[in-house]
């Protein structure tokens, strides 16, 4: 049991990312992640509502929902991915959601999809 505790301690020390803002479900965030195209690398921003945050420690991830040109798509990012350059918190949710996973936003269209 002592060895496992030490391994967890090392993982936590490696994964300390102080540059991420504190965000939760329903918040509007912008994620800047690196995309490699042949020999070039560029940063691509994705802005959307956080549908869910799942996992713990090194398996932690979050899912964004974005509506672009009338089509909605969801992107899941590993929280500790080296491809994420930074995350900006654009707007906190008006009220704290009562659920951990906001799947009911999938059925909404237009401005109602953005209201949480």
Give a summary of the structure in a few sentences:
This protein is mostly beta strands and 116 residues long.
Task: Describe the protein in words.
With 116 residues, the protein is mainly beta. The protein has a single domain (18-113), classed as SH3 type barrels (Roll), CATH 2.30.30. Helices cover 11% and strands 42% of the residues. The chain is built from one helix and five strands; from the N terminus they run αβββββ. The protein has one helix at 2-14; strands spanning 28-37, 40-54, 61-68, 71-78, 84-91. Strands 4-3-2-1-5 form a five-stranded antiparallel sheet, with no helix packed on it. Strand 2 and strand 3 form a beta hairpin. The chain is globular.
| CATH fold category name | SH3 type barrels
Rounded to an integer in angstroms, the radius of gyration calculated over CA atoms is: 16 Å
How do the strands of the widest beta sheet line up side by side? Answer: 4-3-2-1-5
Helix content: 10-25%
Oligomer: single chain
Number of structurally distinct domains = 1
End-to-end distance, in Å? 43 Å
Spell out the helices and strands N to C. HEEEEE
Low-confidence stretches: none
- Give the overall shape: globular
Which key terms come to mind for this protein?
116 residues; mainly beta; SH3 type barrels; five-stranded antiparallel β-sheet
Sequence-ordered SSE layout with sheet pairings:
Layout: H1 2-14, E1 28-37, E2 40-54, E3 61-68, E4 71-78, E5 84-91
Antiparallel strand pairs: 1-2, 1-5, 2-3, 3-4
């Amino acid at each position: 049991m002592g060895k496992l505790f030490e391994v967890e301690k090392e993982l936590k020390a490696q994964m300390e990312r102080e540059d991420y803002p504190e965000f939760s479900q329903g918040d509007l965030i912008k994620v800047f992640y690196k995309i490699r195209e042949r020999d070039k690398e560029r940063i691509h921003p994705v802005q959307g509502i956080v549908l869910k945050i799942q996992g713990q420690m090194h398996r932690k991830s979050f899912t964004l929902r974005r509506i672009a040109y009338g089509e909605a798509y969801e992107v899941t990012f590993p929280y500790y991915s080296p491809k994420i350059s930074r995350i900006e918190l654009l707007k906190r949710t008006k009220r704290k959601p009562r659920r951990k996973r906001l799947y009911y936003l999938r059925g909404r269209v237009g401005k109602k999809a953005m209201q949480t």
